[in-house]
Structures are given as structure tokens and as C-alpha cells.
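Folding follows sequence. Below is one example:
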Amino acid sequence: MEQKKSREEIQALGDNYCFACGAKNPYGLHLQLQIEGERYVAEKTLPREYQSYSGVVHGGIVTTMLDEAMGGYLVACGEKALTARIDVRYRKPTPVGEKLAIAAWIESRRGSFVTMKSTITLPDGTISAEGTATMAVVE
């Protein structure tokens, strides 16, 4: 792996309009993930604009956050990666208006494929959702 990139270097790779992490997207999630040890982490409190039924974050938004953490971690480590496959397990409803902890890490690597894991954790330590993805590292 190459040297880890700063948030500014990562954002410079694109036009900073990513729905999940781009600061310029007015409708985006504006996730501010950072590397802590061997994990890519962020905290986020989502407003009602991202809910499905009353008080619960839409499942597609939950999946987006998990996917961003997994793929973004590899990008932050200097690798271009695309999601080849993602599997999400919704363990319990993810609430709007509460601080969520998002984390992702590398589980294993085989050639240009990396198996990643990610979680969304509630303030009481309960995991509300977990993701597993196969990321394809590309040039």
C-alpha cells in the first residue's frame, strides 16, 4: 500500500461532490471519515431528511455510509477501489437524531480483491448495521 493520504488529498481526487463525503454536495451526508489505527471512522448524527419511516434512517442511506467507510478506507491508504459486492445486515433500526459511530477495516486481501467489514454503532454500543464488501483495487 502507498502512504496514507490526508483528507484534502482524497478530496482533490474528485470534484468534492461525492454524495457520501463531498463537502460541495448540498444534499450529501458530508461524512468526515479519518484513519484511527487500523480503522476508518466517523461520527454522524443524521436529520429527518434521511429517514424512511418515522425516526429511522433509510436503509439505502445506512448502506451508503457502510460502503463509503469501506471503500474510502482503501482510498485513504492510497489505493483506488470500487465496490464489487456488498452485503448489509440490518440488526436493528438506525435512528435519526442520534450520534452514530461508523467504522470500517480490512478483513483480508487476495490479489486485487480486498474483503472489508464495517459497522454502525449506536451511543449505547449496540450495532445497528454491519456490512461486508469485496472491494476491487483498480489502477
